[in-house]
Amino acid sequence: MEPLLELKNIHAGYGEFRVLHGVDMVVNPGEIVAVIGPNGAGKTTLLKTIMGLTTLYEGRVLFNKHDLTKTSPDRRVKAGLVLVPEGRGLFPNLTVRENLLLGAYTINSRSEVEERLKTVYELFPRLKERENQRAGSLSGGEAQMLAIARGLMSNPKLLMLDEPSLGLAPKIVAEVFEVIKKLRVEKNITILLVEQHVKESLELADRAYIIQGGRIIASGKSEELRNLEELRRIYLAV
Ligand SMILES: Nc1ncnc2c1ncn2[C@@H]1O[C@H](COP(=O)(O)OP(=O)(O)O)[C@@H](O)[C@H]1O
Ligand SMILES: [Mg+2]
Fold first, then answer.
1. Whose CA is nearest to atom 25 of ligand 1?
2. Is residue 142 within 8 Å of residue 148, measured between CB atoms?
């Protein structure tokens, strides 16, 4: 099977500040792939690099048979990439519906936008109920659902989620992870998930990459990684 996303020898960072030092990664169609690593490892930088939002010194980003290495972020969205950023990036003073419409900025057809709205409201009925409410008035879990729903408005092939569980109570984290599972099963969306919750993300994902200091230090099927010594060293020793 041809990969949906392939990263080849990615060296990236911010201006002179290098963060990623030769990252290789593959995401196959239909997979849920987790990127796990401690604070400051370069997880967010990796997702931003896939979107074209960092300085790329070396390496290639291949997506859906196209080389996007030099493609602008908005064209990457058009090509089917979406990033749901860390901290969600919602506009608290805009309504739920207005936030969703911002996620559809790459779609010109009015009827297609309506169609997308309908689809995400079916997935998230609670957002429909709160359509005209300010995003800032939502609970943490609802806000995360809105952030994901906004990402879905551009009809992505690959949905990238940066720490969707951040700041949520365990019960709500479980709900968010259920939604991610459902997206894969019902909507056939491929997912690249960045997380610090090691155990839960390995249960959810098919495969995972462990990143530390801007390098992939381990990768494999989730069940193989569950017992990995490195994971224990990074997470349980601190
Ligand atoms: N906009 C930025 N400008 C400069 N350095 C940054 C920026 N964002 C993150 N960094 C640095 O890049 C490194 C990796 O950060 P990040 O990718 O956010 O890690 P993670 O998401 O794994 O916690 C850190 O040393 C961080 O301070
Ligand atoms: Mg981060």
1. 40
2. no
37 touches ligand 1 (CB under 6 Å): yes
Residue having the nearest C-alpha atom to atom 26 of ligand 1: 40
Per-residue pLDDT of the chain (238 residues; tens, 9 = 90+): 899 999 999 999 999 999 999 999 999 999 999 999 989 999 999 999 999 999 999 999 999 999 999 999 999 999 999 999 998 999 999 999 999 999 998 888 999 999 999 999 999 999 999 999 999 999 999 999 999 999 999 999 999 999 999 989 989 999 999 999 999 988 889 999 999 888 889 999 999 999 999 999 999 999 988 877 667 666 654 3
Ligand 1 close to Cβ of residue 14 (< 6 A): yes
- Identify whether residues 110 and 47 lie together within a single domain: no
Let me know how long the chain is. Answer: 238
What is 162-181 written as a DSSP string?
E-TTTT--HHHHHHHHHHHH
Q: How far is the CA of 39 from the centre of ligand 1 (A)?
A: 9
Range of the domain at 212: 1-80+157-238
Same domain membership, residue 109 and residue 138: yes
Residue 65 and residue 6 share a domain: yes
Q: Does one domain contain both 176 and 231?
A: yes
